[in-house]
Amino acid sequence: MKEITFKPSGVCCKMMTFEIDDENKLHNVNFTAGCNGNLKGIAKLVEGMDARYVSELLAGNTCGNRNTSCPDQLSKAIAENL
User: Fold this and answer.
1) What is the chain's Cα-based Rg?
2) What is the spatial distance between Cα 4 and Cα 63, in angstroms, rounded to a whole number?
3) Which distant-in-sequence residues (6+ apart) come within 8 Å of 57 by Cβ?
4) Is the CB of residue 42 less than 8 Å from the CB of residue 21?
5) What pLDDT is attached to residue 9?
6) How far apart are CA 79 and CA 51, in angstroms?
7) pLDDT tens, position by position, 15-67
8) 22 near 9, Cβ under 8 Å?
9) What is the pTM of this model?
10) Cβ atoms within 10 A of the Cβ of 36, count?
């Protein structure tokens, strides 16, 4: 199991941690700061899912007038670690 810590930029979340197992499945996704309820929901929804699929699904999602979002930053973190 590969443990990843990622510092996102341009979003409210200050830190993301997650694990990718040998079958490229996501586990234990955790966000520090940000929109607590929404990020907990995302973490539950992606648990056990294929990391590449989640990265592709969340890529390009924006938040308000920002050109990125916490899901988009998670996508980048996953892509960098596949």
Assistant:
1) 11
2) 23
3) 75
4) no
5) 96
6) 8
7) 999 999 999 999 999 999 999 999 999 999 999 999 999 999 999 999 999 99
8) no
9) 0.94
10) 9
